[in-house]
Amino acid sequence: MNEKINHQIELDKILKNLEETNNSSAKKPSLLLHACCAPCSSYVIEYLSAYFDITLLYYNPNIYPQEEYERRLSELKQFLARFPIAIASHITLVVLDYTPQEFYEKIGIETEPLLAKEAEKGERCKRCYMFRMKRAYTYAYEHKFDWFTTTLSISPFKDAEKINDIGKTLQNISGHLGTHFLPSDFKKRNGFKRSLELSAEYGLYRQQYCGCVYSMHNTDANTE
Question: Global pTM?
Answer without folding.
Answer: 0.94
